[in-house]
Amino acid sequence: MNEIDAVTTSGTTGTTGTSGTATVSGTAAGNARPLLTGLFLQPSFRVVLALLAGLVLFDAIATRAMGLTLTGLGRILWLTPIATMAVLAHLLSLQPASRIKGLWAKASVVLFCLCLLTVFSLAAIVLQDTVISARFDLVDEQLAGIDAALGFHWRHAYRWLTRHSQIFELLRHWYQLHGWQVTLIPLLLACKQRMDDLADYLLLFSATVVLAILISATIPASNPYIYFGQIGAYDPSEWSQFAALHDGVLRVIDLNDNQGLISLPSLHAAHAVVFVYVTRHLRGWNVGFGVVNFVMTIAALPFGGHYLIDILAGIALALVVIWTSRRVSPRRTPSLHPS
Fold first, then answer.
1. Contacting residues for 312 by C-beta, under 8 A, at least 6 apart
2. pTM, full prediction
3. Where is this region: Disordered (predicted)?
């Protein structure tokens, strides 16, 4: 998922943005086409669609080649009502007589994004479980060693947190804000009619997920809870499927029962950077997203089951993806950016 500095407009012809793209009249650009059409016209959005198609194709080939069984595909059918509402809202936004066609346009974009993100997340789960099943040697010992070299000791930090229950519970709640932000950001960007930033968000989100999974494929790790003996590898937990997949015991990928099992790099840390970046133009919200994601990154250590180096690698991954997108992305299609 990737970004370029947005071209802001205030209803009149402006100066060039950071990327050198000339601005156009916000009103003219926004009224020329429906919001959903504007999203589809964004170059970065077309990359998202290509990435999703490639991911689904790879999943189909890899699961068959590795003898894995995929179940729970019926979950995708639950998206049918949402997709139908997105299409209906888009059609209503095209009616010139409608007094709330702007509201319908925003609703169509949000509903479509929710469907797209859900399908992508399910495809990513299949990719994650498939690469874990490749059974590369675990690198927990090396990651713990790097943490120690950096002066960080996970067990000491975890014991400190458990002695401070209020901080521990606060971090637990903040860690769970990741999922809320995944949904909230498309809503806010759609309301502000920032289709360029929304397309970049979708691309940055998707790219960091795929790259994190591929990186973790050759350097897999269980997590500190298992490595330091806080829980057993097969004990019921948020990571209980890891050992079963890695040891070849679990050969079924159930989309109705999935877990986030990537250790290095941390996706929570990577997405924290992405979330802050794509909301940088949302006045009144950007500072809040900065605070939320700073704390969420810290919370990923105990509640994401991450080593410190996982967090640092996740941050580095997001920065590299953002930098790369700014360097290689073509010009974005201007959209209405209300002041």
1. 269
2. 0.85
3. 1-22
